Amino acid sequence: MATVEPAATLAPIAERAAAPARLPEITAGDLTWRPATVADAPALLELHNTIAAADGVPDREVLDEVTDLFDAPWRRFDTDTLLGFDAAGRLRAEGWVETPPGDVRTLRVFLDGGVHPDRRGEGIGRELFAWQVARGRQVMAESGKELPARLAVFTDDDVPAAKLRLYERAGFTPCRYYADLRRDLRDLESAPLPDVPLDGSLRIVPFSTELDEAARLAHNDAFRDHWGSEPKSPEQWTHSRACFVPRWSHLVVDDDPDVEALLADPRTDDETAAALRAGEPLVVGYAMNELFEGDFTTRGYTFGYTAILGTRKAYRGRKAGLAALVASMRSFAEDGMEYACLGVDTANPSGAHGLYAHVGYTLAYGSRLLSIEL
């Protein structure tokens, strides 16, 4: 696993980033390059799904997922995206560079992109990735954030070997592994879901917009001790919901929290403390779920997907997360979904693996994060 030097001993970010003054040109493949716009969404959708099919990746996107990318106010498409078109005007390659705006512990810059299968082997991917890495270093230097920094790229375990070699030649090494899990919901009589009673003043409720901000605060608290996680701003939290299914999502609230004890608890963050003083609702556990109909055919089954699941640190051990997860699984089954699916960091510190195994989840496939730590 990669390690990060303590922030107090780090050189200035502008020095560590070693950003080039000019970005490298891309000449391979004789493509025409320009930034992405929302009008490119249909072409991007076709490219994404063509690449996924060629690489044996079971995920497929729908148009709303792609157009949703362009709604994020922090994304800088004019400087941080690049699309390559052939002489006939067909999209043949894409490169994206993004840094989440809310990072306060580690400055992260994520790289994403790909080349159409028909145009691989021409050096396009190598030159495009060099551009992404160079632009990523510029983004870091421009950030002014004096934090540990990470250039990162996600990939499925079954990605073509050539793509892994590309990343490794550029200096990226695996730093985290993830497991995609699933639970069969087709015969709940022989494999029933457990009942999860909640104690004290805890109560499970359906997701609602009125509790959305309280759920964000719960998420930021729950994931403070998770590797690679950073606080989500309100804009980040409500973004990328093209596939979000509110009726499948569930929250656990504390109707009578011990406000004085929570305010005195050093684990209580400033935003939560302000909400408690204002008498706002306290969400202590949550499961936010999504529907990816485009993946049903490639996976061979229907499913509901738990995108994020968590429990506030002060409430761990009281089954809030488990209650929200099981309620989600019941919602999937009631809508005729054959499986419940989710993804988990294999080194998750909260005991999540035991929880998932307890309710019948098993491994479907895996992915990894490769990075350069600065």
From TrEMBL:
Annotated GO MF terms: acyltransferase activity, transferring groups other than amino-acyl groups
Keywords: Acyltransferase, Transferase
InterPro entries with a match to the protein in the record: Acyl_CoA_acyltransferase (IPR016181), GNAT_dom (IPR000182), YpeA/RimI_acetyltransf (IPR050680)
Domain N-acetyltransferase, first and last residues per copy: 31-194
PROSITE patterns in the cross-refs: GNAT
Superkingdom assignment: Bacteria
Protein name, UniProt field: GNAT family N-acetyltransferase
